[in-house]
Amino acid sequence: MYVSKADDKDWKYPQTEPYASGFLDVENGTHRVFWSEYGNPCGEPVICVHGGPGGGSDAFVARFFDPKRFRVLMFDQRGCGKSTPSASSNDVDAALTNNTTSHLIDDMNKLRVHRKIDTPMHVFGGSWGSTLSLSYAIAYPSHVRSLILRGIFLCRKKDLDFFYQGNAATFAQDRFDMSLPGAYMQYPEAWEKFVKVIPENERHDMIAAYDRLFSRSPKTPTDIEYQNEAARAWSSWEGSTSYLAPHPDSLDEYEKLSFAKAFARIENHYFVNGAFLGGKGPSNRSQNFILENVHRLLTIPIRIVHGRFDNVCPMFQADELVDALRRAGHESVELRRPPAGHSMTERENCLALTDIIEQL
């Protein structure tokens, strides 16, 4: 059976252990962010920005970087991974309070100061990590030496509709209705599970419907189980669609309840607010923040890998970003389109990212 995920022989560098790690209080005791560092303490600084939001950092990401050349800083964004409080807890309010894109950008700066990084950093991020990386660079271009991005996600309404809305509104009447574009066309089995959690009369806006479900205070064991089922459905929908040819156990992490609750709740919290890019609330879902601010990125070399068969963040988002950058006068942007799906661990994505980093 063909599996598109990279295996050990595809990685240029071995897995290493962090040489330092800890927690940073970023919000007067109410949020503590977990961080870890790999590689050479005196090397070129890199900050790795994970996806989701809510996905948490992974140690294997350090394998993209020559441990003799780079100093690699990772962190878990607010509410997920080892950071506290966690959105996987029964009381999610604390994890989602003061949890916006602006807060995460501030956290990246606080980590930079805390770890005594006083030179511009390479910023490495994929999917939502590309969103946050671009947003950080827009806010603080002088802190960024280069952007290495994968699976561009602009987080606009049309991007979210492609993945989360599709034919959900008409699914009950005709599940084969393909009048609207969407990832559902390629993954009908997983799509059915994602859609059926939501009552038929609420499927005209799936993100808002999931928001109402996650926002309720459960009163009975049945209510709790329904929310848990919804979290798993949301999380496993993304897990099911991230690989061109997934490994049989690729869904295991996405279906773990602790991961699924944090991942689904945080993602939905951001998406119902237009990712807090330039604003908040349902009206902000129509934002186009990143493309409207590409002029602030003109001095930063940008390298992008975007899988041609990515159905989570389809390739038109990378094409639009590159077009906007070039029209604004950017002269150092590169886009590679390997034959791969969404995940950074897709073999062709992994090889392309490693090659780009070698050439920095």
Automatic annotation (TrEMBL):
Keyword Transmembrane in record: no
Catalyzed reactions per annotation: a monoacylglycerol + H2O = glycerol + a fatty acid + H(+); Release of N-terminal proline from a peptide; a diacylglycerol + H2O = a monoacylglycerol + a fatty acid + H(+)
UniProt key word DNA-binding: no
Annotated EC: 3.4.11.5
Listed Pfam families: Abhydrolase_1
Main location class: cytoplasm
InterPro entries: AB_hydrolase_1 (IPR000073), AB_hydrolase_fold (IPR029058), Peptidase_S33 (IPR002410), Pro_iminopeptidase (IPR005944)
Any Gene Ontology biological process: proteolysis
Domain AB hydrolase-1: 45-343
Enzyme class: hydrolase
NCBIfam families: pro_imino_pep_1
Annotated protein name in UniProt: Proline iminopeptidase
Organism: Malassezia restricta (strain ATCC 96810 / NBRC 103918 / CBS 7877) (Seborrheic dermatitis infection agent)
